[in-house]
Amino acid sequence: xxxxxxxxxGADFKVLERLQFPKxxxxxxxxxxxxxxxxSFNSYVERMAEKIDTSEPFYLxxxxxxxxxxxxxxxxxxxxxxxxxxxxxSDKEKSRLIKVGEITKIPKYIPVNFFNLNxxxxxxxxxxxxxxxxxxxxxYFRVTDPYYLKWSVQRISEWKFEQKNNIIQIxxxxxIVFPLKNSKPDxxxxxxxxxxxxTKHKEVSLLLNKIFI
Length: 213
Hints:
Organism: Chryseobacterium luquanense
Helix content: 25-40%
InterPro entries: AB_hydrolase_fold (IPR029058)
Structural class: alpha/beta
Strand order of the largest sheet: 2-1-3-4-5-6
Mean pLDDT: 88
Number of helices: 9
Oligomer: single chain
Protein name: Alpha/beta hydrolase
GO molecular function: hydrolase activity
Radius of gyration: 16 Å
Largest sheet: 6 strands, parallel
Keywords: Hydrolase
Low-confidence stretches: none
């Protein structure tokens, strides 16, 4: 069976590269697409789902924003199991900061230029937001198209979703992006920041081999 995997906002698969999946399954990584001008979220989800072969059963796994994406894909292409890492199961689990963005609509009005690579390198607060003690944090975020980043931040702040019962949620207890206190995950990674798939890969791998049987 195939496991289709989507990484986090602005991240390629380096953050997930040390995870060990069950050997009997084929892992297929789905790269982020650059949104078309003023593309709707539904349209984007449909394009991201095009690579999924529904002629046979499959699993979905998403990290961070990828966790949101695989839940949306699951509505149009149903998976046998959906696993989300460092992500949320409904808009009710958003952090206070994300809710502020939703209410004020600030992400909509932030200039695209704010999200260019030079600015992101300057703002150490952005790096610290994910894992202040990890010197490799910049290596994990390589999808740097400014329009994609702005579009994604806006979609996250606007996201509305009712929790589904078939979602398996794994979270870190030190995650600042999606705080544990807002959720009731199936599994908790002790000492896990938002980058726990990379920093706690052994623990996560054991869980994945238990889940994807």
